[in-house]
From TrEMBL:
Transmembrane segments: 21-41, 53-71, 78-97, 128-149, 165-183
UniProt domain EAL: residue ranges: 385-630
Species of the source: Leptospira montravelensis
Keyword Acetylation part of the UniProt annotation: no
CDD domains: EAL
Swiss-Prot/TrEMBL keywords: Membrane, Transmembrane, Transmembrane helix
Residues in the signal sequence: none
Protein's UniProt name: GGDEF domain-containing protein
C-alpha cells in the first residue's frame, strides 16, 4: 500500500511537470506537419510529379490546430491537448495507410504516438493504448484478407498481402513493449529524481527559513532583532513617514534576578515580557516591537502624540499582567523607558538610537517609572562626561589634583582640632570641576583605586607642613571610597607608605561611608581593627544618609560618628529633626564615639547643636575648604 501510494504521489507530482513538456511536443509536431505540408507543394517548384493537395490541406490544418493549442497554454486542459495529439496522429496514420499502404509514413506516426503514450499517460493506460494503436495495421490486414479493400498494383504487391500487415502490427507491438519498458524505467528514475530534488528544495527552503529566523529574530523572545528592526524602520523612513516615536524599554535588576533565581528564570522573564509587549501592540497599526537582546526592548510608534504615549506608559504596568505577577515571579518587575521623536530630534535611525541610549542613561538615574524624552542638553552632558573621563585618566596618573582642607572645630573651645582633605580639580577648558561631578565619573570608569592612592599620597606629603601650621595635636581626615577600602592588601599599602615617609599614623582619620558594609561585614571588621591597632582612627561618614544600621556599630569599633548634613539643615526650625539629632548624639556617646556635625552654616544651627552632646562641628560657619599648598 505504501509503495502504491508513493508511486501515485510520484506520478501526480510528475504529471504537474508534463504541461511544459507537452507544449514542446505540440510546437515540434506543429512544425513537422508544416514541413510535411510544404513538401507536398514541392512539385510546383520542381515540375516533377503531382501536387497532393489533400495531404497538403490535412497537414496544414493539423499544424494550425497544434500551434493554436501551443499558444493557448494552460487555457486548454491537459487531457484535451493529449487527446487532440492522439487523434491527429491516428488520423494521419489511417489516412497514410489508406493512401500509400505500407509505403507511407503511418508507421513512423504510430511509433511517435506510442512514445507519446508512455510519456504522458500512466503506465497501465499507456501500455493498453500502445497495444491498441499497434493493432491498426492488423486491422487493415484483416480488411485485405476479406477483400474489403485492395491497393493499386502501382503501390506494390506486398500491400495486398495480409501477412505483411500482420508483421507490421507485430513489429509495432514489440516496439511498444520494449519502448514502454525502457521509458517506464527511465521515467521512474526521473520521477524519483524530480521528487528528490523537490524534497531537497523543500528542505533547503525550510533551512533557509530557519537561517532567516536566526538572522532576523531574537531566539528567546521570537521578536524581530536589531538587524530586522533597523531594516523595517529604515523602510518606514524611506516611505516618507513622519511624526513617529522610538521608545527604549529597559528591565531593572535583571542581573540580580539571574543571580538569585538563575539565568533560566531570567530568560523566562524576558520571554514573557516580549510576549506581553507583543500582545499589547498586536492590534495597534503602525507599532513595531523588537528585542535588542539582553534586558532591552525597542518600539516604533506611529499615529501618536507624546501625551498619549506618556499616559500609556503610566497605565502600562508589567506586574499587572497575568503572566508577570510578582506572586508568580517572586520578584516585582520594574522598568525604565526613554523616548525620542522622529524627525524633530533626529532624522537618521542610527542617530535616533544613539540619542535614545543617552536618554536611557538619564532614565537610569531616575527612581520614577516614567518616560524620559531625549533633550539636547543630555547629549551635551554625555559629551562633557566623556571629555572629563579622558582628562581624568591623565590627571589620575599624573597626580594633577589639588587638596583643599576644611577645618573641624571643637564646639566648646572653638579651636581647630582637625582638617578634612578634599580633592579639587580644574581644567583650562572647564574651569573648576565639582567633586560631585568628577568623583562619580572616576568611580564608574574604574579609576577609583589609583585616584584614592593619588589623594592619599598627596595628603601624606602635606602632613609635615600641616602640623607646623596647626600644631602637633591636629588630625587629618581622608575620605576612602568603599572600592579602595576593600582593595586587596589595602592595610599593607597604607602602613608601608606611612612607614616609608615617617608619618605617625595617629595623625590620620579614615572616613568611610555606610555603603562599604554592603560586602561581608567580617572583612570590614578585620580591616578596621587592624587600622586602629596601628593608630589610625576610623570615622563612620554620612551617618543617616544611607542604611544607618545599628548592626554595623555593634560589630565594628569606630572612633568617630559623622552626622550627615541632611540631619542638620532644619534643626533650627524643626523640633522633630532636633530630637532625632539629639538621640543620635546620645547613642554615639553611649558607644564612646566622638560626634561630628558637618554642614553647619549659621549660628542658629550652632546654638541648637550646643544643646546636644555633639563634640566637633564642620561647615562654612567656621571655614570653607582652602587649598593651602600647590
Amino acid at each position: 500500500m505504501v509503495a502504491d501510494k508513493n508511486k501515485y504521489v510520484y506520478w501526480t507530482k510528475f504529471q504537474k511537470d508534463t504541461s511544459p513538456l507537452l507544449r514542446r511536443f505540440l510546437i515540434a509536431a506543429s512544425g513537422l506537419f508544416a514541413i510535411a505540408a510544404s513538401l507536398h507543394l514541392l512539385p510546383l517548384f520542381t515540375g516533377h510529379g503531382e501536387v497532393d493537395y489533400l495531404f497538403f490541406a490535412v497537414d496544414l490544418s493539423f499544424s494550425g490546430i497544434l500551434f493554436l493549442e501551443y499558444l493557448l497554454k494552460n487555457k486548454v486542459p491537459l487531457i484535451i491537448r493529449v487527446f487532440s495529439l492522439i487523434c491527429t496522429t491516428v488520423f494521419i496514420s489511417v489516412f497514410s495507410y489508406a493512401r500509400s499502404g505500407l509505403l507511407g509514413s503511418a508507421e513512423i506516426s504510430l511509433s511517435f504516438m506510442i512514445v507519446s503514450f508512455y510519456v504522458f499517460l500512466p503506465p497501465i493506460i499507456s501500455l493498453i493504448s500502445s497495444l491498441i494503436i499497434s493493432l491498426l495495421p492488423a486491422l487493415f490486414g484483416g480488411l485485405i484478407y476479406f477483400s474489403i479493400i485492395r491497393f493499386p498494383d502501382s503501390l506494390g504487391t506486398r500491400n495486398n498481402n495480409p501477412r505483411d500487415w500482420m508483421f507490421n502490427s507485430i513489429s509495432l507491438i514489440l516496439f511498444s513493449v520494449l519502448t514502454g519498458f525502457l521509458i517506464q524505467r527511465l521515467r521512474s528514475k526521473l520521477i524519483k529524481n524530480i521528487v528528490y530534488l523537490k524534497e531537497s528544495r523543500s528542505k533547503i527552503l525550510n533551512t533557509q527559513k530557519k537561517i532567516d529566523k536566526l538572522a532576523f529574530y531574537d531566539q528567546l523572545t521570537h521578536l524581530p532583532n536589531r538587524y530586522l528592526f533597523d531594516k523595517l524602520i529604515q523602510n518606514r523612513i524611506n516611505s516618507g513617514i513622519s511624526d513617529s516615536f522610538l521608545l527604549l524599554i529597559n528591565l531593572k535588576g535583571l542581573k540580580v534576578i539571574n543571580a538569585l533565581h538563575g539565568i533560566g528564570f531570567g530568560d523566562q522573564i524576558l520571554t514573557l515580557t516580549g510576549c506581553v509587549l507583543k500582545l499589547s501592540t498586536d492590534e495597534m497599526p503602525g507599532v513595531i516591537v523588537a528585542s535588542l537582546g539582553g534586558d532591552e526592548f525597542i518600539l516604533w510608534i506611529e499615529n501618536a502624540t507624546k501625551s498619549i504615549i506618556e499616559n500609556a506608559i503610566v497605565k502600562f504596568d508589567l506586574n499587572n499582567n497575568e503572566l508577570l505577577t510578582p506572586e508568580r515571579l517572586g520578584h516585582r518587575l520594574q522598568y525604565r523607558v526613554s523616548g525620542i521623536q522622529f524627525p524633530n530630534d533626529a532624522t537618521r535611525l542610527d542617530e535616533m538610537i544613539r540619542k535614545l541610549s543617552i536618554a536611557m542613561n538619564v532614565a537610569r538615574e531616575s527612581h520614577l517609572t516614567k518616560i524620559v524624552w531625549f533633550q539636547s542638553g543630555m547629549e551635551l552632558k554625555i559629551e562633557r562626561e566623556q571629555k572629563l573621563k579622558n582628562y581624568l585618566e591623565k590627571a589620575v596618573y599624573s597626580s594633577n589634583f589639588k587638596i583643599a582642607y576644611q577645618e573641624k572645630v571643637d564646639i566648646t573651645s572653638r579651636e581647630t582640632v582637625g582638617l578634612e582633605a578634599l580633592a579639587r580639580w580644574s581644567l583650562p577648558e572647564f574651569g573648576e570641576v565639582s567633586p560631585e561631578e568628577f568623583i562619580p565619573i572616576i568611580t564608574n570608569s574604574e579609576l577609583i583605586v589609583p585616584f584614592g592612592k593619588c589623594i592619599f599620597e598627596k595628603v601624606i606629603s602635606h602632613i609635615p607642613r600641616l602640623l607646623e601650621l596647626y600644631g602637633k595635636q591636629i588630625k587629618i581626615s581622608i575620605n576612602i571610597s568603599p572600592i579602595f577600602f576593600l582593595y586587596p592588601n589595602f592595610n599593607e599599602y597604607i602602613i608601608h607608605y606611612l612607614t616609608d615617609h615617617k608619618i605617625d599614623p595617629k595623625h590620620l582619620i579614615f572616613e568611610i561611608t555606610e555603603d562599604v558594609f554592603l560586602d561581608e561585614i567580617e572583612t570590614i571588621q578585620q580591616i578596621v581593627s587592624e587600622l586602629r591597632s596601628k593608630g589610625i582612627s576610623v570615622s563612620l561618614d554620612d551617618f543617616g544618609k544611607g542604611y544607618s544600621s545599628l548592626h554595623y556599630m555593634q560589630k565594628i569599633q569606630f572612633d568617630e560618628l559623622k552626622i550627615d548634613k541632611s540631619f542638620l539643615d532644619d534643626i533650627a526650625c524643626s523640633d522633630r529633626n532636633f530630637l532625632l539629632l539629639e538621640s543620635i548624639c546620645h547613642l554615639a556617646d553611649s558607644l564612646g564615639l566622638k560626634t561630628i556635625a558637618e554642614g553647619i552654616e549659621n549660628e542658629e544651627q550652632l546654638l541648637r547643636l550646643k544643646q546636644t552632646t555633639c563634640h566637633v562641628v564642620q561647615g562654612y560657619l567656621y571655614s570653607r575648604p582652602q587649598i593651602l599648598f600647590d
